[in-house]
Amino acid sequence: MGAKNILTETVGDVEWIIFNRPEKLNSMTREDLLFISKHLNYISTNKNIRAVIFTGSGDKAFSAGMDFNEFNQLTPQDAYLLISDLKNVCQLIRKIPQPVIMGINGYCIGGAMEMCMAADIKVAAKNAVFSMPEINLGIPSVLDSVLLQQHVGLSLAKEMLLTGEPVNVEKINQFGFLNAVVEKSKLKEKVKEYADTFINKPYETIKQQKELFETWQNSSLDYAINDSMNQFALAFTTEIPQQRLEGFISKRK
What we know:
The chain has helices at residues 30-44, 76-95, 111-118, 148-152, 154-163, 169-172, 187-199, 203-217, 221-235, 240-252, and strands at residues 6-11, 14-19, 51-56, 61-63, 100-104, 107-109, 121-125, 129-131, 167-168, 180-182. The chain has 253 residues and is of the alpha/beta class.
């Protein structure tokens, strides 16, 4: 299933979302963004899906971001609507209850890199290349670029956003931007390994933890800590902690 340029496949408890426009380096249209948003909204209500994996078709690219044609002749109002559609996708990646894993094969550019910055886990093939080239089009990098300095340090963030020049896996990963780097032939296996790990964790607890990450990014230290304490207490309104504790104790006997 999927849109013209996006394939989706449910394999067991895992949902795969695949950029499928290899002849255009898997670049995205506005229609693709709207489809991804709709599909992520569906996933957010489906407790049978325990993890989400994004990757790209072909050997060259994860995704080259937005198709340049989408920027042609935009009015300021149209530009705002387009960037709002990308914002919605990034927010959903951050906020859906399921962990979102990126399997980055090849070029990861612009809007696609924004989506990666919003994700929970990022696994890249050794041939991956990262770029935020918006400056070369006369537009600033926005949305989850706000977090780029947290991911890669202020100096590299400024270099990437002010020059638009691409960087390789080794350079971008100096500060741990990626969770794992593997041979291209092992990429699918590695992202599935992460997904399998999450499948074995309690759905509601993963959901709580993702909500806390959002709180921590968007509030003061005192508020974040107090909210964490409330979430800790709320966990005990369910039977999950006791069930897990009993299982842990039984394994040790």
